[in-house]
Amino acid sequence: ETRAVIIALHKKGFTGKDIAASKIAPKSTIYRIIKNFKESGSIVVKKASGRPRKSSKRQDRLLKLIQLRDRGTTSTELAQEWQQAGVSASARTVRRRLLEDGLVSRRAAKKPLLSRKNIRDRLIFCKRYRDWTAEDWGKVIFSDESPFRLFGASGKKLVRRRQGERYHQSCVMPTVKHPETIHVWGCFSAKGVGSLTILPKNTAMNKEWYQHILREQLLPTIQEQFGDEQCLFQHDGAPCHKAKVITKWLGEQNIDILGPWPGNSPDLNPIENLWSILKRRVDKQNPTNSDKLQALIMQEWAAISQDVAQKLIDSMPGRIAEVLKKKGQH
Fold this sequence. Notes:
The structure is a single chain. By secondary structure, the protein is of the alpha/beta class. Helix content is about 45%, strand content about 10%. The chain contains 14 helices and 5 strands. The protein has helices at about 1-10, 15-20, 25-40, 55-70, 75-85, 90-100, 115-130, 135, 205-225, 245-250, 270-285, 290-305, 305-315, 315-325, and strands at about 140-150, 180-190, 190-200, 230-235, 255. Strands 3-2-1-4-5 form a 5-stranded mixed β-sheet, sandwiched between helices. Helix 5 (about 75-85) packs across helix 6 (about 90-100) and helix 11 (about 270-285) crosses helix 12. GO terms for molecular function: DNA binding.
């Protein structure tokens, strides 16, 4: 706007000295603007060319291809490979070029390995239930087992710290070599959390224990949440879940099973998100012994609202659609 005013006054016959008297801008700035206008005929300032790029567009595309061929290659390694193609650039330049293409460095997500059979089973499952609405999923009780460990090892912990505070007592997460682990079994539906039980110490989940849990924990949950309404029960393909005695018992109780559930598919089970919520709440209170940990697990499980459970169930149609979109992949 200032340049436009200066040029407008210049066109009306005002000299640089006259314009400077109005103190609209320093005299040197006014003379430079008038000079540039006489040379270019425009008040738009030309963008400075800056330092020439070290690489051409073709070389940039080559760098992108090298990175996409192996996503784990570091910027230093990429700079060395790029040098063989005739581009002498630093690792920092490599990172800038990749950033221009939207390729940023992030920690790799940890996911279960999917075999061809897993992928096929995931697609079969999702195609079977692709037309189910959130209301349909609201008639399913999801279940799972999960470990809880002392000293904040159950989930991730983020802290905000200043420089030099990495090892400040309030910024570290204590660990022990062999943390005590507590195994729990739980279930939930759109109506809220169901029963949660803690397995006795050093007890492995087998068909006998699983049948005991279903009888003592699942049946009361079905009665409390659904009464005489029809519902489905979800559990994964763990060996003890697929035992003949379990299948027979569920049939005798007239409990219909959702599935068959595809292997290595925690991303399809909303109870995994419920475990994450529970672990964050428990870890936040820093239990220091097994008794406190168990008490907090039961306390925080009971405090999970029906609204949280409903939102997780509502996510099921989107999960199914996403797996179909990814052709069975994560």
